[in-house]
Automatic annotation (TrEMBL):
<feature type="DNA-binding region" description="H-T-H motif">
    <location>
        <begin position="270"/>
        <end position="289"/>
    </location>
</feature>
<dbReference type="InterPro" id="IPR009057">
    <property type="entry name" value="Homeodomain-like_sf"/>
</dbReference>
<protein>
    <recommendedName>
        <fullName>HTH tetR-type domain-containing protein</fullName>
    </recommendedName>
</protein>
<feature type="region of interest" description="Disordered">
    <location>
        <begin position="1"/>
        <end position="20"/>
    </location>
</feature>
<dbReference type="InterPro" id="IPR041490">
    <property type="entry name" value="KstR2_TetR_C"/>
</dbReference>
<dbReference type="InterPro" id="IPR001647">
    <property type="entry name" value="HTH_TetR"/>
</dbReference>
<dbReference type="Pfam" id="PF17932">
    <property type="entry name" value="TetR_C_24"/>
</dbReference>
<keyword id="KW-0804">Transcription</keyword>
<feature type="DNA-binding region" description="H-T-H motif">
    <location>
        <begin position="40"/>
        <end position="59"/>
    </location>
</feature>
<keyword id="KW-0805">Transcription regulation</keyword>
<feature type="domain" description="HTH tetR-type">
    <location>
        <begin position="247"/>
        <end position="307"/>
    </location>
</feature>
<dbReference type="Pfam" id="PF00440">
    <property type="entry name" value="TetR_N"/>
</dbReference>
<dbReference type="InterPro" id="IPR036271">
    <property type="entry name" value="Tet_transcr_reg_TetR-rel_C_sf"/>
</dbReference>
<keyword id="KW-0238">DNA-binding</keyword>
<feature type="domain" description="HTH tetR-type">
    <location>
        <begin position="17"/>
        <end position="77"/>
    </location>
</feature>
<dbReference type="InterPro" id="IPR050109">
    <property type="entry name" value="HTH-type_TetR-like_transc_reg"/>
</dbReference>
<keyword id="KW-0678">Repressor</keyword>
Amino acid sequence: MNSETGENPRGARVRPSDRRSQILRHAGALFARQGYGATTVRQIADAAELLSGSLYHHFPSKEAMLLDIMEDVIADALRRYRAAVRTTTDPIVALRNLVRGTLALIQANPDGTIVSVGEGRRLARTERFFWLADRTAEASGLWVEAARDGWEKGVFRPDLPPEVVAHLLQSTAWSMAQWLRSGRVFDPDEAADRIVDGFVRGIAVPGAYQSRDLGAVLAAARPSCPGGGIDPALLVPVPARIVFEGSDARTRIMVAASGLFAQQGFARTTTRQIAEAAGVPVGSLAHHIGSKERLISEMLAEFLDELRTGFAKDAADAAGPVEQIGAFIVRTVRMLAEHGVASVIQLNESAMQELPRRELDALFGHVSRTWRGAVEDGIRAGVFRAEVDPDFAHRVIRTAISAGSGVYQAMGVPDVPGLYQEIVLAGVGARR
C-alpha cells in the first residue's frame, strides 16, 4: 500500500532526506535489474510505497534520480582513488589500491555501479550529463598518473603507454560489477592482488611465450583526452559491422538490431528503430523475429555457439596451452568486433527473465570450461605460473577483453588481439 504521509507502514516518521535515499535505493535496484529505459516512474513509486505524483516532490524526473545515483557513485570513486594514490610511492601498489577501491565500491553499492557503468557509456556524449566527461577524465587521470609513474621508474614496459595500462586495469575492475550481479562473489583485497599480479607479471612463465615489441601493435593510437584520462567518448561501444548490400530482410534486421543494442542498449531500442535501420516495414518484424527478446536470445546463442565451435578448432590446431590462449584471445576480440552483442553481454542484459536461460547457460558454461581447461593445461605443463588460479584468471581475461577491446579499436590500435596476447601472456611489467 502506498504511503502518502511522512510515515512508514509501521508509523515511524521518515525524514525527507531518508525518503530521498529510499527512493534512490529502489530506483537504482530497478535500473540495475531491468535497465533505465525500461523502468517507469510508477514502478519506482510502487517500490518506494508512494503514489507517482508524490515522487515528484523529491525528484523532478526519472533522469534526476539517475543523475543522483551516478553522482554518488562517481564521487565515492574519486574519494577512494585520491586516497589510493596518496598513500604510496610504489606504482604497482598504487594501481593495486585503485583496483581495490573500485572493487570495494562495487561491493558496497552494486546497483549503483552497474547503473553507472551501463548508462555512463550512453550519457558521456549528452549535453545534460556534460559533468560526466569531466569527472570521468579526472578519475581516469588518477589511473594514468599511477601507470605513468611506473613507466617513468622503469617498473612497467617502455613499449606500453601508461594510458593503455590504466585503461586495461580500470575497465577490468569496473566490469567486475557483473560478477556480483550474476551471483559470484569475491574478496576485494584478494581479487585486487590477483588482477594486478596477473596483468603485471602475465600468466606465462619467463621464456614460455615469445614476447614482442608493441610499437607496431599500437601504431598511432590516440589513447588519451586533454584531461589526461581515457576520452569518455571512446567508452561508447563500437557498433557492429554493417553490410547491407545483397542481404535478405532477416540479415538486415539482425545487423541493424545488433548495432542499436550495442549503441543504446536493449531496453532503449524499439522495434520501430530496428525496422527503420533495417529498411523493412514495422509490421514485417514479427514475421522475421517474433519479438525483441527472441531476437536478442538468438543473437547471443549464435554468438556463443560460433565462439564454442571456433574454440574447438583453435584447441585442435594449437601446439600447446600458450598457443591455445593466444588463439582464444584472437577469436574473442574479432568476434566481439563483428557481433553487435558485445556490450549487451558486458551489461548482462542476457540475464533477463524472458530469455531461455538453459540454452544460454549451457553455451556460456562450455565457453568458460574451454578457457579454464587451457589455463589448467598450461599450469600442469609448467608454461603458466603455478600460483595462477585457473577459474579467476580466465574470467578476468574474458572480462578485460569484453570491456576494453572496443575502446582500443576506437583508439586506433591496429592489432587489438596482439595487444591482449602480449598483456595477458607476458604482462605489463618491465620483465622481457
